[in-house]
Write a structure and sequence with these properties.
It is a single chain. By secondary structure, this protein is an alpha/beta fold. It has helices spanning about 45-50, 80-95, 105-120, 160-170, 180-190, 200-205, 235-240, 280-285, 300-315, 330-335, 335-350; strands at about 5-15, 20-25, 30-35, 55-60, 100-105, 125-130, 140, 145, 210, 215, 220, 230, 260-265, 320-325. A hairpin with a 4-residue loop joins strand 1 (about 5-15) and strand 2. The chain has an eight-stranded mixed sheet with strand order 1-2-4-3-5-6-13-14, with helices on both faces. Strands 7-8 form a two-stranded antiparallel ribbon. It has a two-stranded parallel ribbon with strand order 9-10.
Length: about 350
């Protein structure tokens, strides 16, 4: 097996904050491909994919604010994901990247969609890996993202598992609890059968998450609607509350870059039956007082994404959906070969266009 290239790291000043950027060593030329990680993670989750891209590409990964090596700055959730997407565009400015291919995972897929909505001319292509629904995470129903409650009940900072938050804050590297980052990695980030390569790096990446009301998970307020909690205005989980986030505007952008949607068949996080959707947990009898699926149905996250992307096609855009069997929330580490078989032709086609 050939030696893998090194990953270099630097913290660069932008117009907004100091951002940690990582890239493949001695890869200064080629089409820039910018990778954006998801929630409770950072750029090391992309190292295998970055190292494996052909040399005609220049892979770059950024750490979002409050994750990895980037500044811990407050997140204004009332802007949806725009604090993160504005940081991304400012980082592209600092790197003199007028245009790049954007690859986003989970929450990061929402970030790159928001960047495309705000600056479509800077996006050569979009790759969405197990993306958050365009209508956010929790608190909606139907393909159009209808709010279940005007205050967004069932979404936001108050929906996080407090034991998991405490384990992150304590730097827990054990597998003693089902709520430790290591256990959550194995149970929810990946599907059974993952080989565990680079596990320590990924656990450390998860533990780089900044904890607090201004970062992860964010604040919350009481609600009269089930399950009794609604989003606040600060922090990471509130950025994906449907009261603040609506990415369906991607249908109307010009120009319309080609979109690749890659998802794992066994994803438990972003799913029409998500294990992190309080409505789904209520339907399973895990949470008390559930008023029933006729009042609070589980959010059809995948179906919502497909509906919006079908609208993108109808408006003149193009997308391809690739479903990887026996893969969970992290296709880029669970089945790197299959992920690259989808990604590289997508990048090549967009480059030729």
């Amino acid at each position: 097996m050939p030696d893998l290239p090194d990953i270099d790291v630097s913290t660069i000043p932008t117009a907004r904050l100091q951002v940690c950027v990582r890239w493949v060593a001695d890869r200064d030329d080629g089409e820039p491909v910018v990778f954006v990680h998801g929630n409770v993670s950072s750029s090391p989750f992309f190292f295998p994919a970055m190292r494996s891209l052909p040399e005609r590409f220049r892979p770059i990964a950024v750490d979002l604010r409050g994750f990895g090596g980037t500044d811990t700055a407050p997140v204004d959730a009332s802007r949806g994901l725009r604090d993160f997407s504005d940081d991304l565009l400012a980082t592209m400015d600092a790197l003199d990247l007028e245009r790049a291919h954007l690859v986003g995972w989970s929450m990061g897929a929402g970030v790159v969609m928001q960047a495309a909505i705000d600056a479509a001319e800077r996006v050569g292509s979009l790759t969405l890996i197990n993306p958050v629904s365009p209508f956010g995470f929790g608190g909606t129903a139907g393909l159009d993202g209808r709010l279940l409650s005007p205050d967004g009940a069932g979404s936001g900072g108050g929906t996080a598992n407090p034991d998991f938050v405490r384990a992150l804050a304590d730097g827990d590297t054990s597998s003693d609890s089902p709520n430790s980052p290591r256990s959550v990695l194995w149970t929810f980030y990946v599907a059974p059968g993952w080989d565990g390569e680079d596990e320590e790096s990924y656990v450390a990446s998860m533990l780089s998450t900044s904890i607090g009301d201004d970062n992860y998970p964010g604040d919350s307020v009481p609600s009269q609607a089930w399950p009794g909690v609604a989003p606040g205005r600060r922090g990471v989980l509130n950025t994906m509350s449907p009261t603040y986030l609506d990415l369906s505007g991607i249908v109307d952008i010009e120009p319309r870059p080609p979109i690749l949607w890659v998802r794992g068949e066994l994803d438990q996080i972003v799913s029409d039956t998500s294990s992190f959707d309080l409505a789904q947990l209520g339907a399973l009898g895990v949470l008390p007082g559930y008023p029933g699926a006729d009042v609070v149905p589980p959010q059809p996250m995948v179906s919502q994404t497909r509906s919006v992307l079908d609208g993108y096609t109808s408006a003149g855009g193009w997308y391809r959906e690739v479903v990887l069997p026996a893969v969970g929330h992290s296709p880029h580490i669970e089945d790197l070969t299959a992920f690259l078989e989808a990604l590289v032709p997508h990048l090549d086609g967009a480059t030729r266009d």
